[in-house]
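Summary for the lay section of the report: proteins are chains of building blocks that fold into shapes. Here we show the chain for Glycopeptide antibiotics resistance protein and then a coded description of the shape we predicted for it.
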Amino acid sequence: MQGHGPGRTADIRFRVAGILLLVTQLAFIAWVSLRPLTATWVTAANLEPLASIRGDLELGFAEATRRIGRELLLYAPLGVLLPLAGGRIDAHRLGSLLRTVLASALISCSVELAQSTIAGQVVDVDTVLINALGVALAHLAVVPAVRGWLRRRDQSAPEPALLWEETAAGVTPKIPRVGIAP
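The coded shape description reads as follows.
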C-alpha cells in the first residue's frame, strides 16, 4: 500500500490489473453492443422509461428474466472494475457508488447513442437504467468488502523503514547504521 495525499491508494499492481480488466470489459461491451444485426424489421426507439421492461414482463417470466438478466450482467463488472482502476481505499461509500454508477450510465448512454447509427440496433432508455442497476448491485456486493480487506491488510503490514527524515532545516536522507563485520 502507498500513502498519497488525503486518502490511501491501492498497490499499483491492483490498479494496473483493474485498468487492463476495465479495457477488456469495455471492448467486450462494444463488441456485443455495436455489431450490426440482420433483421427484416426493427422496432422504434424506446424513449419512455420502463416501457420495454413492461413489454418484457408481458412475454413471460422466463423471457423477461433472460432479457433483463442479460442487460444487468453485461455492465455489472464495471461496478467493481471502475473503483479498482481508481485504486482509492479510503473512498466514501456513497460517493464511490454514485461516481461508479454515474460513470457507467454515461458509458451506457454513449453505447446506446452509437447503436443508433448501426443497422438493426435500436436506442432503448431502459437498457441504460438496467445497466446502471447492474453496476450498482455489483458495486454494493463486492467493493465495500474488498476495501475492508485491503484496509485490514494494510493495518497488519509492518511499517516500512523511513529513508528520509524531516527536520527544521528540511528533508534529509536517513542512512541506516551498519554494524562492524567480524
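Put simply, here is one thing we learned. The first strand starts at residue 2 and ends at 4.
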